[in-house]
Amino acid sequence: MADLDPIFGMHAQSLAVQRQRMEVLASNLANADTPQYKARDIDFAKVLAGTQQGATSGVTLATTDAKHATGAAGTTTGTMPLSFRQPLQPSLDGNTVDEQVEQSAFADAAMHYQASLSFLSGQIKGLMTAITGQG
């Protein structure tokens, strides 16, 4: 299979990162009432910067082919670095989940995910038009 990175750019990797971010944020929302639960998040900008700089920031990406870019130090564990969210106001039970912040972050991640899907869909439609010769 030909290398598709020039065609799809970073959008394929963006989908994976945003999907994992939405999973983390959904976990935060599910544990909003769990005592001592610490809200976590993935910093997409750090992940992007790490992959653009040869992944020297401790980010690791999953690979399924020898031609794929590897994460930090050549590892391929497929995990993104999670950071703990700082609470806006302390809670008595030690839980740092703020439901409004988590819902906002989830909506942001979903919007970025949808934008990447739309871009990829447009690229695929363009390729299909070029292949079939139909407009």
Describe the secondary structure blueprint for this structure:
Elements: H1 5-8, H2 11-30, E1 40-41, H3 44-52, E2 83-84, H4 99-132
Antiparallel strand pairs: 1-2
Helix pairs in contact: 2-4
Task: Describe this protein with a few key phrases.
135 residues; mainly alpha; two-stranded antiparallel ribbon; 4 helices; 2 strands; 50% helix; 3% strand; elongated
Number of strands: 2
Mean pLDDT across all amino acids: 79
Q: Which shape, going by the Cα principal axes? A: elongated
Distance between the termini: 26 Å
The run of helices and strands is HHEHEH
Beta-strand percentage?
Answer: under 5%
Radius of gyration: 18 Å
| Neighbour order of strands in the largest sheet | 1-2
Largest sheet: 2 strands, antiparallel
Give the proportion of residues in helices. 40-55%
The number of domains is 1
SS-based class: mainly alpha
Point out poorly predicted stretches: 55-59, 71-77
Count of DSSP H/I helices: 4
